[in-house]
Write a structure and sequence with these properties.
With 218 residues, the chain is of the alpha+beta class. The chain is 55% helix and 8% strand. The protein has eight helices and four strands; from the N terminus they run βαβαββαααααα. The protein has helices at 10-22, 41-44, 72-83, 91-121, 127-147, 161-170, 184-194, 197-214, and strands at 2-6, 26-30, 54-57, 67-70. It has a four-stranded mixed beta sheet, with helices on one face. Helix 1 crosses helix 6. The protein is globular and about 50 Å long.
């Protein structure tokens, strides 16, 4: 059983996407970042950087005590190794998948996140910042579009944790002022992943978490 400490953000969505795809049993412990749950001592013992997602594997492969893992890229890699799914075992394929996971973690996610922050959340509208991050997001979409021009999925013909890492950051493309019509290969890939039953189940769980949070007192 995997205990998933989760909120309904792009980084958070990655882990239910993996778990639903592989069928690994899990239970969700919501961490409402709008209420400051990420600063609770119990959560900080699992995720010392006070960020979601984080997991606790109640049955690690070594048979030892429950194992906590934080940071979405590390969690995806850990779970892929645990299940033997969505990450090749042979060195070349593994390196290719992990390179694109790190590309998302170090590039697409932070740049799109800053795009959304300065465009929609910042208390002061700073035109330079808005334009900088909008253009950088577009550049990264272009990188992904070129990558997908000759392959079905990011790392080749097989769906992998590279696709899982990137997909949730493309979902809010309108908020990030990106038109998928400008990136036809990304659009084709995006629609294919959106149609996967596991994707629908993962986002349905997100809806459940939001509804439960809305009913939480205070």
């Amino acid at each position: 059983m995997i205990d998933l400490y989760y909120w309904t953000t792009p980084n958070g969505h990655k882990i239910p996407l993996f778990l639903e795809e592989t069928g690994l049993p899990y239970r969700i412990f919501p961490v409402d970042i709008g209420r400051g749950d990420q600063f609770e001592p119990e959560f900080l013992r699992i995720s010392p950087n006070n960020r979601i997602p984080a997991i606790v594997d109640q049955a690690p492969a070594d048979g030892g005590e429950p194992l906590a893992v934080f940071e979405s890229g590390a969690i995806l890699s850990y779970l892929a190794d645990k299940t033997g799914q969505l990450l090749p075992r042979e060195p070349r394929g593994r390196a290719e998948v992990l390179a694109w996971v790190f590309w998302q973690v170090g590039g697409l996610g932070p740049m799109a996140g800053q795009n959304g922050h300065f465009s929609h959340s910042a208390p002061e509208k700073i035109p330079y910042a808005i334009e900088r991050y909008r253009k950088e997001t577009a550049r990264l979409y272009g990188v992904l579009d070129r990558r997908l021009a000759s392959r079905e999925f990011i790392a080749g013909d097989a769906y992998s944790i590279a696709d899982i890492a990137c997909y949730p950051w493309i979902v809010p493309h309108r908020m990030h002022e990106q038109d998928l019509a400008d990136f036809p290969n990304v659009k084709r890939w995006f629609e294919a992943i959106r149609a996967r039953p596991a994707t629908a189940r993962a986002y349905a769980r997100a809806d459940e978490v939001r509804r439960s949070a809305a009913q939480r007192p205070g």
